[in-house]
């Protein structure tokens, strides 16, 4: 992959529901010489290995919210940082999450003690506001965040490369004008679509809602993900395409995209 390109790997396209077809939510993004992990459901470390990405290559973990199906691998990740033989990383791993994450991590430390404490200078936590948009940098990458409509601590993320390429991650959300603004003009929009058309679940999107938001944002490509099992028996593209006329991809685990 060229230095100006970004590569996206869907590690898990499912939800909390156990499935042989779909692992829980997690995406790997490689861009600007950095490797980012967006959410980390239980089993994400194994999915990384299967995708050919070593866990000590992960520079940052971006959590969209703290539901267990999005943070379930955080404890194993920290444990592997400290005890996995051959872990070569010296630079700190950065964690981006909404304000309140440090308290959450404090509870994990109270429960697991030194097992989830990688050591001085090896973990950097940056808390981001949920009251409105925010920006931070991960090396050459610009990361913008903004509130979404799922929990009071839910964030969406936009990652931009120096070459101007961009990808947006919805996390879990209901219809969200804030997310539309965050996704405006993005090359790739990775958007949740938890329920098939006609089976709306509060706090999540249907295909038509995802398509409408993608159209309003004017994104280049739409990647639907975060499917409950009933989605696999339904046509997700047709209702989405009624509103969005760009490329629509229905994610599977280990789907790879470049931009």
From TrEMBL:
Coiled-coil parts of chain: none
Gene Ontology MF terms in the entry: 3'-tRNA processing endoribonuclease activity
SMART domains noted in UniProt: Lactamase_B
Origin superkingdom: Bacteria
Lineage per the UniProt record: Bacteria, Deltaproteobacteria, Dissulfurirhabdaceae, Dissulfurirhabdus
The entry's keywords: Hydrolase
Pfam families attached to this UniProt entry: Lactamase_B_2 (PF12706)
Residues annotated as domain Metallo-beta-lactamase: 23-226
Record's protein name: MBL fold metallo-hydrolase
């Amino acid at each position: 992959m060229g230095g100006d390109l970004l590569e996206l790997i869907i590690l898990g396209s499912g939800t909390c529901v156990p499935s042989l077809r779909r692992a829980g939510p997690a995406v790997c993004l490689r861009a600007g010489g950095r490797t980012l992990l967006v959410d980390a459901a239980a089993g994400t470390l194994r999915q990384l290995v299967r995708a050919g990405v070593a866990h000590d290559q992960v520079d940052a973990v971006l959590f969209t919210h703290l539901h267990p199906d999005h943070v379930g691998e955080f404890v194993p990740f920290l444990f592997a940082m400290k005890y996995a033989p051959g872990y070569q990383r010296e630079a700190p791993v950065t964690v981006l999450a909404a304000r309140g994450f440090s308290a959450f991590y404090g509870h994990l430390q109270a429960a697991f003690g030194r097992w989830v404490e990688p050591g001085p200078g090896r973990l950097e936590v940056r808390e981001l506001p949920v009251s409105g948009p925010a920006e931070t940098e991960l090396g050459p990458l610009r990361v913008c965040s903004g509130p979404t409509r799922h929990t009071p601590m839910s964030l969406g993320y936009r990652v931009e490369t120096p070459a101007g390429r961009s990808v947006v991650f919805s996390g879990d959300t209901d219809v969200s004008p804030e997310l539309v603004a965050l996704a405006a003009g993005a090359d790739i929009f990775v958007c949740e679509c938890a329920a098939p058309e006609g089976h709306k679940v509060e706090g999540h999107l249907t295909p038509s809602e995802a398509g409408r938001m993608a159209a309003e944002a004017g994104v280049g490509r739409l990647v639907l993900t975060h499917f409950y099992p009933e989605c696999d028996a339904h046509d997700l593209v047709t209702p989405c395409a009624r509103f969005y006329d760009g490329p629509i991809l229905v994610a599977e685990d280990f789907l790879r995209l470049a931009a």
